[in-house]
Amino acid sequence: MKLLVIRVLLLLLAVATFARWAPSQTAPKKVIIDTDPGTDDALAILLALNSPEVQVEAITVVPGNVTAQMGLDNALKLATLANRCDIPVAGGAQHPLAQKLVTAEFWHGKNGLANIELPTRCHADPRFGPDLIIELVHKFPHQITLVPVGPLTNIALAVSKDPSIVPLVKEVILMGGSISGGNVNAAAEANIYNDPDAAQIVFNAGFASLTMVGLDVGNKTLLTDRQIAQLEAAPGPMSHFVAQVGRFLLELSRRFGETGTPMYDPLAMGVTLDPTLVTTQAMRVDVETRGQFTRGETVANRTNTVERNVLRGDRYVIEGMDKVTPNAKVCVDVQAQRFLDLLVSRLHGK
Ligand SMILES: [Ca+2]
pLDDT tens digits, residue range 222-277? Predict the structure, then answer.
């Protein structure tokens, strides 16, 4: 009798475990895209909205490539283009935490969307972006993947206001940073450079999983004439728009002697759809917030060790090496062709 009870209990436990496990394996990932749209942001958003692996719970807008207001307008235009006015699109921070905004019309066109005019039918959600993030993380504990593809201001505001969301976020997959030099200057990548204080908060918030999709891999995923021609050959409003954006970016890249244009933000979404696209290495990453030449650099510890220097009299003596705990999975390689094929296949004919 006692044995039977134990067997029944074990069976119930197995069923309960399976019931918990099964939906997470089959149901799409719930994602919040935090974005500063932005040409490559636009492509990342459209990739997400055409991929069954993810369900976009919200789009929150952060100032970066363009101002907060222009970014919000653009996000609404993209939701309109995808016929997805059901997705909450919310504005957030109006400026970086502790510095002036640097906008990038130079790279994204004067309207932030490659100077392509799109209509708007969707309306902004009245909630404040960081509050919406907090609300959704509590509504779906351990289920939300945050995909920040702009400066990290909104995410920093959310975790500062309500640190209890940190352990409830399933994972963070962000576009930003670099361990091999910057694109703004020698040291800094643009998203991190635009709010290093926010980035340092986010990297050290203690998320269970934080993947850094930086320049190291983004610079390897170059959209070229071949993919753009494939998109141009396929009818559909979204593929047409993506091809136009691709043409704009390619022309810009050619002016700087490049034959392709890097798909930074779309790659972060690609990694969200299929983590096997990249190779990652666990590292301790801190963000330089004060350096004379390096403000905004993601300083990554490859060995996750630091020397232990102890004061002995008038000098320090190295007494050994201390371990530091990694806080990020840094993408160090990417299957670029496989990613570009995925990007094109999802948007082709849409
Ligand atoms: Ca962006």
Answer: 999 999 999 999 989 999 999 999 999 999 999 999 999 999 999 999 999 999 99
**Number of structural domains the chain divides into:** 1
Residue tagged 């309306």 (tokens): 123
* Model confidence pTM above 0.90: yes
pLDDT in tens, 90-142: 999 999 999 999 999 999 999 999 999 999 999 999 999 999 999 999 999 99
What pLDDT does residue 22 have?
A: 47
- In the reported structure, the alpha carbon of residue 133 is separated from the centroid of ligand 1 by a whole-number distance in angstroms of 18
**CATH code of the domain containing 280:** 3.90.245.10
**Within 10 Å of residue 162's Cβ, how many Cβ atoms?**
17
Amino acid at site 249:
L
Residue 186 has pLDDT above 80, yes or no: yes
Structural domain harbouring 311: 27-347
Q: How far is the CA of 61 from the centre of ligand 1 (A)?
A: 10
The Å distance, Cα 60 to ligand 1 centre, comes to: 12
Higher pLDDT, 26 or 344: 344
Query: Which of left, alpha, beta for 13 (phi over 0: left; psi -120 to 50: alpha)?
Result: alpha
| 17 in any annotated domain | no
Domain contains 172:
yes
**Cα–Cα distance, 75 to 109 (Å, whole number):** 15
Answer yes or no: is 8 within a domain.
Answer: no
Q: How far is the CA of 142 from the centre of ligand 1 (A)?
A: 25
